[in-house]
Design goal:
The chain has one domain: P-loop containing nucleotide triphosphate hydrolases (Rossmann fold, 3-Layer(aba) Sandwich). It is built from 7 helices and 7 strands, in the order E-H-E-H-E-E-H-E-E-H-H-H-E-H. The strands form 2 sheets. A 5-stranded parallel sheet has the order 2-5-1-6-7, sandwiched between helices. It has a two-stranded antiparallel ribbon with strand order 3-4. It is globular, with a radius of gyration of 16 Å. It starts with 5 loop residues before the first strand and ends with a helix. The mean pLDDT is 97. Bound molecules: 2'-deoxyadenosine-5'-diphosphate. The site of 2'-deoxyadenosine-5'-diphosphate (DAT) has 14 residues, from helix 1 and helix 7. 2'-deoxyadenosine-5'-diphosphate binds next to helix 1 and helix 7. Its EC number is 2.7.4.3. Keywords: ATP-binding, Cytoplasm, Kinase, Nucleotide-binding, Nucleus, Ribosome biogenesis, rRNA processing, Transferase. It is found in: Cytoplasm; Nucleus, Nucleoplasm; Nucleus, Cajal body. Monomer and homodimer. Interacts with small ribosomal subunit protein uS11. Not a structural component of 43S pre-ribosomes, but transiently interacts with them by binding to uS11. Interacts with COIL (via C-terminus).
Length: 172
């Protein structure tokens, strides 16, 4: 059976992991958190002192994922989307949260002042949405509100329906 690949992207803290894991458990698709994958495989290329985080080795991440992505049925979660091959994804969701909501979530994570400010700005200027539009066909890029538990439930139901339809359309 052919299965679609889904990209969940957006500013850190918008709810990609929460949605991705729940979606995977309800759809049977596989969930991959690119941040975790990079940590496990040490797929890094230096360290960013300003943001206090390692720099992703994008080429190695792509190589690492290629086989699974060609098989299909993968939900990818990452706060960036311009380095993945465009052909990998059948649909792209950009999650979005209100500033006040996002601020509280990131504060809870203990982000430093600069990281907090930059991430809030990233959300205000819709940086990930713009990046997604620049990297994928506009028709497959969708924004999803991710402020409250009801949003999560709505998003899951909407995506499950989409998956079901995609599978129907691609079965022969
Ligand atoms: P991300 O993976 O985008 O960094 P996350 O899934 O870890 O974000 O979520 C960050 C926090 O926000 C976490 O404590 C769970 C909470 N959260 C996520 N989606 C939510 C929603 N729709 N309603 C309320 N809280 C949510």
């Amino acid at each position: 059976m052919l299965l679609p690949n889904i990209l969940l992207t957006g500013t850190p803290g918008v709810g990609k992991t929460t949605l991705g894991k729940e979606l995977a458990s309800r759809s049977g698709l596989k969930y991959i958190n690119v941040g975790d994958l990079a940590r496990e495989g040490q797929l890094y290329d230096g360290y960013d002192e300003e943001y206090e985080c390692p720099i992703l080795d994008e080429d190695r991440v792509v190589d690492e994922l290629e086989n699974q992505m060609s098989e299909g049925g993968v939900i990818v979660d990452y706060h960036g989307c311009d380095f993945f091959p465009e052909r990998w994804f059948h649909i792209v969701f950009v999650l979005q949260a209100d500033n006040s909501v996002l601020y509280k979530r990131l504060e809870t994570r203990g982000y430093n002042e600069k990281k907090l400010k930059d991430n809030i700005q990233c959300e205000i200027f819709q940086v990930l949405y713009e990046e997604a539009l620049a990297s994928y066909r506009e028709e497959i890029v969708h924004q999803l509100p991710s402020n409250k538990p009801e949003d999560l439930e709505d998003n899951i139901n909407q995506i499950l329906k989409w998956i079901e339809q995609w599978i129907k359309d691609h079965s022969s």
